[in-house]
Amino acid sequence: MSSIDACRAQCVELSDRASQLELDTFVKSPSSLLERLRNDKEKLRFRLATYIATNPSVLPSVQSLISASASADRSAIGAALKIAEGRCTSTKPDAARKIRDFVQRIGDLNVQAGYSAAGDDTSGIPAQSQAKGPAQPSRGGALLEGEWKTKLADPFKPVPLPN
Fold first, then answer.
1. Are 87 and 50 in contact (CB under 8 A)?
2. How many Å apart are CA 33 and CA 35, to the nearest integer?
3. Burial of 7 (0-12, 13-18, 19+ CB in 10 A)
4. pLDDT for the residue 157
5. In whole angstroms, how far apart are CA 127 and each of 5, 148, 150?
6. What are φ and ψ of residue 145, in 5° steps?
7. Taking CA atoms, which of 53, 83, 123, 156 is between 20 and 30 Å from 129?
8. What are residue 145's DSSP bridge partners?
9. How far apart are the C-alpha atoms of 30 and 60, rounded to whole Å?
10. What single string gives the DSSP state of each residue in 13-69?
11. DSSP secondary structure letter of residue 8
12. What 3 state SS string does 69-130 have?
């Protein structure tokens, strides 16, 4: 029955989920994530966000992680919570609400600062889903166009927005 609950709890597509082994390891020893990603705040943000978005029931382990982490890491943890909330908002609004309530209950200023700072920073969210999309134009060829990329493009032409 727990695997059924886990499937329903997931906010992200299968390809964006953390493996069950990673989740189990994190739940058993939350500080192992800090040891593995030594001082790499970016990796901590996105790995933890993936864990939470894969299964929001890992939040009690996030509480343990916060207790075991240095204050510098806590802002990255807050940002991870915000990113996970953003990933869950459209697919599982209840999970997003659970994450938001969790952040408010924590009361750790560093976590809340990281959470608030990540509010405007959605850099990791669309980039991952767009990278798999069809026909993503290369950034390097943006100034050149035509079949062989030999004609100079109009630098004032409006940039097409992703769907």
1. no
2. 5
3. exposed
4. 75
5. 28, 27, 28
6. -140, -175
7. 156
8. 151
9. 10
10. -GGGSPPHHHHHHHHH-THHHHHHTTT-HHHHHHHHHHHHHH-GGGHHHHHHHHHHS
11. H
12. CCHHHHHHHHHHHHHHHHHHHCCCHHHHHHHHHHHHHHCCHHHHHHHHHCCCCCCHHHHHHH
Question: Which amino acid, one-letter code, is at 71?
Answer: S
Name the 3-class secondary structure at 158.
coil
Half-sphere exposure of 41 (CA within 13 A, CB side): 13
- Per the structure block, which two tokens stand in for 6? 């886990």
Position 142 scores a pLDDT of: 62
Distance (Å, rounded) from C-alpha 47 to C-alpha 161? Answer: 28
Percent of the chain at pLDDT exceeding 90: 25
What is the four-CA torsion angle of 31, 37, 38, 42, rounded to 10 degrees? -120
pTM over 0.70, yes/no: no
Q: Strand, coil or helix: what is 5?
A: helix
Alpha-carbon span 64 to 122, nearest angstrom: 26
Cβ contact 143:152 at 8 Å: yes
44 in Cβ contact with 79 (< 8 Å): no
The tokens 């869950």 sit on which residue?
Answer: 88
